[in-house]
Amino acid sequence: MKKVGRTISLGFALFSLAATNAAQEPKALPLPDERYKTDILLVVAHPDDEGAATPYLARALDDHKRVAVVFGTHGSSGANEAGAEQAAALGAIREIEARNALATLGITNVWFLSGTDTASQNVLQSLANWDHGVSLEQLVRLVRLTRPEIILTFLPGTFIGEDHGDHQASGVLATEAFDLAGDPSVFPEQVAGPTKRLEPFLENLRPWQPKKIYYFPDADREDIFRGKGPDYSVKEISKSSKQAYWRMALDSFRAHQTQAKSFLDRVAQMDEAQIEKMATSDSFWTESLHFVLGKSLVGGRTTGDIFEDLTAGMIPFARPEVPPEPGRTDQWNFYAEFRRAHGLANLPHPEPPEIALQAPGTLVIPLWIRNRTAKTQEIVLSTALPAGWTTQSGAGKFTLAAKQVAAARIEVNLPAPAENTGKKPEPQEISVHAESNGQSIGEIKLRVELRKRALPQ
Ligand SMILES: [Zn+2]
Q1: Ligand 1 mean position, distance from CA 357 (Å)
Q2: What contacts 24+ positions apart, CB below 8 Å, involve 415-424?
Q3: Consecutive H or E run containing 451
Q4: How far apart are the CA of 408 and the centre of ligand 1, in A?
Q5: What is the pLDDT of residue 1?
Q6: Distance of alpha carbon 299 from the chain centroid
Q7: d(CA 52, ligand 1 centre) in Å
Q8: What percent of the chain has pLDDT over 90?
């Protein structure tokens, strides 16, 4: 008992020591199950998303790192290339495909949250459809169970690119779990010890603070990610398989029959030289992997190796350092608030915000309008658009009662994108102005790229 206090700290369970018999052999207290301890926890949205990181995971496994994976959904929507099953049945198949894909690398600690697919670029729709709170509780549990040193996930942000809302949601949840799993006041029933031998409710996990979080972008804007984290070549040869890492990733991807049977059937007919030719002509397989450092609680250079400056063992819980609220603003921007709340000041993001949309189609711009004055005010909303774009609804005169905040929305008709001009499509800038009593009270700018195909806004 003498040593207790400085080197070991005790919770309120101390009283139970009074009942032990000093003459007995000391009995080791049960510890967390080492089979689930991981170095890297990959958090993604859909079966096959792991492909964004598999060449790096294969490399990390060569270095004897332990890897676990969490999928936010079962990927139950979309076309089935391999059979007739759809919806929940397709999700059941895709769970096995994802497990098999990861098993080819030797990764078997794989879990699925209860989120469901959401076909949009709007992260808030995905979070709503995933039961945000439920998914977060599940993910915090898995972080406490797997005790990762590193979390790898999609970059939470809005960009021109595929920018799937579910991918963003996995990055949002992973960031939240990074900041919450070490806090014993968060989901405390998970860290509470058993009150009976067959405890049915309390989980007896320990809080766990991961050390670094890295992101991979789901966007085309490579320019703003360069130099923000380490790059890994996928062409190096694995010590264990004697194959290039991209080749191991391709072998792993073969499990995803429902998503890519036609492609995989073609690959199955190829010899090694043809596979090599196919992969080197498609940068998807052989391009280096870029990661963006979200934050590190243990130092290390931004572009240094992911495991740089990491030492084994627990680190204390670190509440994110939140910079003071920026000057009074009438704009609510989810990701600006998110970056501030999670201490991600250096996370790359486009200014002004940008999006790629299918056209012809409609762009919806949601607005918040605040009246700080003591009387009802008249507000005029107007847009400035490129030639051929028109305001469908939402512009004009409105009134807003004293001291109130109200939501409005503007809809813009998008023309078809220009036919093959030979040039890369350029995003165009649009703006929305709000005026009251002849004075400007706010302006929002947005860059929009028109595409033949894109996820819904
Ligand atoms: Zn996906």
Answers
A1: 18
A2: 415/359, 415/360, 415/388, 415/389, 415/450, 416/359, 416/360, 416/450, 417/359, 417/450, 417/451, 417/452, 418/450
A3: strand 439-451
A4: 31
A5: 39
A6: 22
A7: 9
A8: 81
How far does residue 433's CA lie from ligand 1's centre (Å)?
A: 36
DSSP assigned state of 62: H
Q: For residue 241, what are the β-bridge partners? A: none
Task: Respond yes or no on whether the N-terminal peptide bond of residue 350 is cis (omega within 30° of 0).
Answer: no
Say how many Å lie between the CA of residue 43 and the centre of ligand 1: 11
354 and 410 Cβ atoms separated by less than 8 Å: no
Q: Would you say residue 328 has pLDDT above 70?
A: no
Mean per-residue pLDDT of the chain: 92
- Alpha carbon distance 449, 350 (integer Å): 13
User: From ligand 1's centre to the CA of 212, what distance in Å?
Assistant: 23
Q: What is the pLDDT of residues 373-382, one digit of tens each?
A: 999 999 999 9
Ligand 1 mean position, distance from CA 125 (Å): 15
Question: What kind and span of H or E run contains 165?
Answer: helix 165-180
pLDDT at residue 5 above 60? no
Ligand 1 mean position, distance from CA 429 (Å): 28
Closest listed residue to residue 107, CA positions, set 149, 63, 66: 66
- Which single residue is written with the structure tokens 């391009």? 287
How remote is the CA of residue 65 from the centroid of ligand 1, in Å?
25
pTM: 0.92
Assess contact for 301 and 143: CB atoms under 8 A: no
Calculate how far, in angstroms, residue 161's C-alpha sits from the geometric centre of ligand 1: 13
